[in-house]
Specification:
single chain; 257 residues; Glycerol uptake facilitator protein; 2 strands; 2% strand
């Protein structure tokens, strides 16, 4: 692996993630779609399956698809992201660039897929909701807490799944995303991924969307800062656990012994 391959892998995987994830939101909330009114569980499952597809699309780079995952792995004390790619500032920046660009591309593709429905939709909030998250009750401090906790759960699950002996890691993480959406998605819409929120929000701002209204930049920092903090905390907690007890597999083996 080299950094160029890492970059394009993350672009492809994150674009697929956002295309399918924002796509399910568009199907549920935009006017005259086949899935109009499908509800939050349809959105939760759609995002989970989007993660599942995105992981396989970006398998070559380890399929981070999320700056919170990248920074969480770095904070966990890992030496390499994938064999031959050391954890350092340069590789971190390549991962982040691929994730944000991929998220922007995926959002643009979603808009193209639903162009007529964006035109038919009268509510600007529904249009923005396809691209990015927003709070049910606007309180930046508590909204931040929700994003920190939800992203902690996600990144800790990713770190633990990396040491399992089966090939079920992608399915496990996809189901975790469904669970986070169903359990912790109510207050903020569970961005749990800075690229997933900021990349599409920028797309919303620059695309010629009819009657789109504001991109809500006043809230935009919450789904960026919260997931980064949650991801880094998960990485640090995981590092402490490994230093004390060994990897999850070693810990379970010691318990069984």
């Amino acid at each position: 692996m080299n950094l160029g391959a890492i970059f394009f892998s993350e672009v492809a995987g994150t674009a697929m993630l956002v295309l399918l994830g924002c796509g399910v939101v568009a199907n549920v909330v935009l006017a005259k779609t086949k899935g109009l009114g499908g509800g939050t569980l349809m959105v939760n499952w759609g995002w989970g399956l989007a993660v599942f597809v995105g992981v396989y699309a970006a398998f070559a780079s380890g399929a981070h698809l999320n700056p919170a995952v990248t920074l969480g792995i770095a904070a966990s004390g890992a030496d390499e992201f994938v064999p031959g790619v050391a954890v350092n500032l340069g590789s971190i920046l390549v991962y982040l660039a691929g994730e944000f660009l991929g998220a922007f591309i995926g959002a643009v593709l979603c808009w193209l897929s639903y162009k007529q429905h964006f035109d038919a939709e009268e509510d600007p909030a529904n249009k923005l909701g396809v691209f990015s998250t927003g709070p049910a009750i606007r309180n930046y401090g508590w909204n931040l807490v929700t994003e920190v906790i939800a992203t902690f759960v996600l990144v800790m699950s990713v770190l633990v799944s990396g040491y399992t002996k089966t090939a079920l890691g992608p399915l496990f993480v996809a189901l975790v995303v469904v669970g986070i959406g169903a359990s912790l998605g109510g207050p903020t819409g569970y961005a749990i991924n800075p690229a997933r929120d900021l990349g599409p929000r920028i797309a919303h701002a620059v695309l010629p969307i009819k009657g789109k209204g504001s991109s809500d930049w006043a809230y935009s920092w919450v789904p960026v800062v919260g997931p980064i903090v949650g991801g880094v905390i998960a990485g640090l907690v995981y590092m402490i656990f490994v230093n004390v007890y060994g990897t999850p597999a070693e810990f379970l083996a010691s318990m069984a012994g």
